Every structure is written in C-alpha cells, then in structure tokens.
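User: structure tokens for this one?
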Amino acid sequence: MSYELDGWDYHAYQMKVERARDKHAAISEFGLTKNEITKHEDYLERNKDNIVQTFAPKTMSFIETWQYIVDSNFAIYNNRGKNKIMCCLQFGGNLEFFESFPNEKAIDAYFQECYRFALNLVGYKQTDRNIVCAYVIYEGNRRNLWVWFVPITTRWQKRIYSNQVSEKGNKKILRDEYDEPIYVMEENANAPLLSRSEFWAQHGGLVSFSWLQESFWQKVSKKYGAKRGESSSYFYNTCGEQAKRYFRHAGDDIDDDNDDKHFYVDDAPY
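Assistant:
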C-alpha cells in the first residue's frame, strides 16, 4: 500500500526505514542425510545458470564424490540410521551489506576470502581434499557461497567397552559412577573418522556454532563493516569472545529460570 498525506509518501518512507538496517554478513552450517544431499544437488542443478564464481567444480554426483573422498582419505564411516554424512557451509549477507561494495570485483574478492576461511576451518588438513564442490550462486537479490564438504576429523572421542556382554551378545559400554559412558580420545592422522558430531566437537564443542559465527566475524566480515549480532543464547552455548563483549556471565538475566527469556539456543547468524 502506498499513499500520501500532505505530500508525505508513506511507502517511500517505509522503504527508507527498512533500508537503514545495519550491514550483516551471515554464515550457516547444514548437516545433510542422504536424502538431504539429493535435495541440495537438485538445488544446484536448478541454479547452474546462476553460478557467478566457482571454487571447487562438481565433476561427479554428490554421492559419487562423497564415496571418492571417503575412499581416497581412508576415512572410517560407521553407518547408523539417518547419519548426517555431509555438511554445507553457506556464506551470505543482507542487501545493505552487498550494496556497500564498490563493484562486482570487490564482491568476488570478498567471497574468495570466505572460501579461504572455509578451507582453513573445515578443509581436511586445511586442504580441499574433503570438499565436494563450492560455488557462489546469484539468485534474485541474494548471492551465497555454498561449500559442500565431508566432515572428517583426525581426532575424536571413543567409547570404552567392558568385558561384560548384554543379552543380545554385544559388549556393554563401560560407565562411570554417574552411569555416564566413559570416553577416551582417539587420534589417527592416516585414517580419519567421518562424523559430523565429532567434527564439530573438535571445532568448539558445545559452543561450536557460536564460535563459528564469531570467528567468521572476527577474521572476515568485520573488515567489511558488517555488524555482529548480540548474544541472546544460553551462557553455555556462548563462546568466550561474545561473553566478554556483551558482559555475559553464568546466572545472568538471560540465563535465569524465566523461560520467557530463552528464545534461542545459539546466536543469530551474523
């Protein structure tokens, strides 16, 4: 709806207010089952004409590439039900962020930096050996860098089993005095483990996704004038840098027993 009151165009005013938002750059992570991998591949195929930058080209199907990465890196894969066997990092931003760049070359350079950040973060031994493919896709007024990868890690936690056998004939898990499973740290540089949960456990643990967004802002998007979202998450899901910046502490107002304040379990992806 657009109307004028005494020469005042309400619609134009509303557009101006909306466009006055802060600049935000976003990073998101998706864990993918086999079915979800197919949906992502379908998305890529539908938008292949909208690809504006290529960092790692798709040479085979996602599943064929996944199998090649597993085999070539001698990765250990324990197939259990609906495992998240692949991941995707998505880099983007709002309209205000991209309009702040002087030209297309500057945007291209920004996404090159995003891809280097991705390789240093999720690349197996900081290489592209576990990268399925990576593209910048322009869609309408949005553009995003998509980096699909296989989450393999050289360090992980391993359960300890006792000599006792269950009724089904399986060895029982060794537990502590609180009936919690006992783990030891396993490390194998030649035969990594394919596990999304263990991969992110080695990249921040409980605060991994808060840390991911904080690290991206500190190392990349802050240089381009992007604003960082405030921390509204539970304290134990907030990484240290954010806790300091927003004066967060255990037992503060956000983390009290008032459920009305518990809107999030992680930060906004800015």
